[in-house]
Amino acid sequence: MSTNGYITGNELKRIRKKKLAEFKERKAELTGGPVHLTDASFEEAVKKHSVSLVDFWASWCGPCLSLAPTIEELAKEYGEKILIAKLDVDENPKTAESFQVYSIPTMVVMKNGKEVDRIVGCAQKKIIVSTLEKHLG
Questions:
Q1: 122 carries an active-site annotation
Q2: Is 61 a catalytic residue?
């Protein structure tokens, strides 16, 4: 906020971005789709769930787009048990870098906020399910 009590342009942009991220997360919960995470929402979201699968992707990545329907299916099938989420690496480089995601798609399985497994590349659904089941036990 500026010294005269008005919200600055940059502050307004930050607020809009945060609210949009919150809206997308809530929409995903209601529709059964994957939750779209940001650098700002990542940590809190994965800590809320005992097990999470985060798909690190980008809109220009062909294999990422091929994997998207599988992630959608997993969100519908596992959405009540675990967090199924997506994080756009171009829009959220801080989180991608902190997890050393240098190839996409990369799916990171987290348990209690800590990485426990990783799948790099466009894996078949049965491989992803097998990896998730290993950590649900």
A1: no
A2: yes
